[in-house]
Amino acid sequence: MLRFRSILFAAVLAAASVPFFVDAQTSGAEAAAAPVSSTTSGKITAVPFRAGTILSAEISKLKPAFDIESEFDKPAIENPAWIELIVRLDNGRSISRFDYEIVGKNGTYSCFAVAEGADGYSSDTEKWIIKKPHPLKYYRLLFPVRQDEIAAARKELLPVTLKVKLYDTTLAPASFQVRVMPEGRNFTRVSSVRPEGICNMTYHEAFESGD
Length: 211
What we know:
With about 210 residues, this protein is of the alpha+beta class.
């Protein structure tokens, strides 16, 4: 147990020292220049954030698959719901489980795991940081959250904010709405996410409306 905590602490320090992001003085104009897509209804379906673009955001009671789990590395929340983001990273960017937190209606939640493409999540320390992302692949971020966040959703969408966790930045956090997945349905597969994004859309709007 003590050994694992030492490894976790060392990994946090390593993540903090790696330049995953540009300098904190990056101008807001650079962030505003990130690609944004919208539907005919005016919804922003691809949301810029510090390291790239959020293409999908979903919340579900179903826990996604893990390739490796550890009894010493568990969410602080008992019986959580789960928020998953699918993102496209900008050139030169990396990402780790230490970089971001989500602010919901009922709390603030740290990222618990990251994964490339359709790979399973993992508690393996080697999987905590994605140092060399592939420019053509999508990446997933997983956040355990309180179950009552689902109840706070309105019209099947939950407003949240994604913030940089390790240090202060002059860039505004990314705010968007998380899709509440139908009861018993797993998160959307990476292969089903369109390049223009399906963020800020209900399940019906994203997959059943034909928009």
